[in-house]
């Protein structure tokens, strides 16, 4: 094949494999990278908003949802760097929503318990996650999960998803006190006592994973399930974790 043609997919795979070969750590974002966070949190939220709207004919489900979304937007704008627990954040959001409709706080404990129960019921790993993590571990490499979120919730998520045993280190914004876009990746490198060229990192967000990791010199792989090709470059993008398993 003439060398002026764009690299074939197998070429691209060889390049990624060669780069990954030189890394002793593989990092992962957690939410919507290793598991279906959005689906689980949507199910938990939907359940709770219905509980709030139930029995109040003058309060529409849509109005409750709009008010809750506003509380969520305000409460998570700092990317969980203020050290509160997941229950504190949820309490704040539900409390603000109940207050807005003058409903009192009688339902609050029930909402917090229900949210956690429905969230856990809906936790689902991304296709290929476990066998990928296993393949990485059996290749002798170590795994770090780097995630924005409350430390307690992310520890529970790893446990409830059944993947704690594969994770050598869990780094949360909440524990380190900085967001991904304001220095978390550098703090993690310091914590692990490694340099940027010793790790590759996989995440689903260009803005919050790929851009800040790349800015620290980390080889970053974008997970984009909407992409039709298995693997594209610049930035390296895979459409499933299954693709990565064949490259580690
Ligand atoms: Mg994510």
Automatic annotation (TrEMBL):
Entry keywords, A to Z: Hydrolase, Magnesium, Metal-binding
Cofactor(s) listed in the protein's UniProt record: Mg(2+)
Pfam name, any one: HAD_2
Transmembrane segments annotated in the record for this chain: none
GO MF annotation: an example: phosphatase activity
Organism name: Cylindrodendrum hubeiense
Signal peptide start-end: none
One Gene Ontology biological process: small molecule metabolic process
Domain of life the protein comes from: Eukaryota
Keyword Secreted: no
UniProt cross-references to InterPro entries, sorted A to Z: HAD-like_hydrolase, HAD-like_sf, HAD-SF_hydro_IA, HAD_2, HAD_sf, PGP-like_dom2
Designated name of the protein: Uncharacterized protein
